[in-house]
Amino acid sequence: MTITVFIRYQLDPFKRAMFEEYARNWLSIIPRCGGDLIGYWMPHEGTNNIASALVSFESLAAYEAYRARLRTDKESVANFNFAEENRFILAEERTFLRKIAL
């Protein structure tokens, strides 16, 4: 069963450009580490401090293997450090979804 991870980010609205740089960095890292990146979304109108991402995996086990690869990938570690040092992500929530089959 394929699972999709929905990530909801609460941002510092004055540091949205930094989050966008962070998100762009994941565009090559996530697929290389085994995730099927559906995309990142930035605030455009309305709420200015919520962004989101969707990444799919073949299974929960595939997700766990991906998370392990992220911890050893140099670009991934650098991107996590960039976020931590600049504190533009105030909160992050993950929801694991499954598609309803017809």
UniProtKB/TrEMBL annotation:
It holds the Pfam family NIPSNAP. It comes from the Bacteria. InterPro entries: Dimeric_a/b-barrel (IPR011008), NIPSNAP (IPR012577). Residues 6-100 form the NIPSNAP domain. This is NIPSNAP domain-containing protein. It comes from Bradyrhizobium macuxiense. The lineage of its organism: Bacteria, Pseudomonadati, Pseudomonadota, Alphaproteobacteria, Hyphomicrobiales.
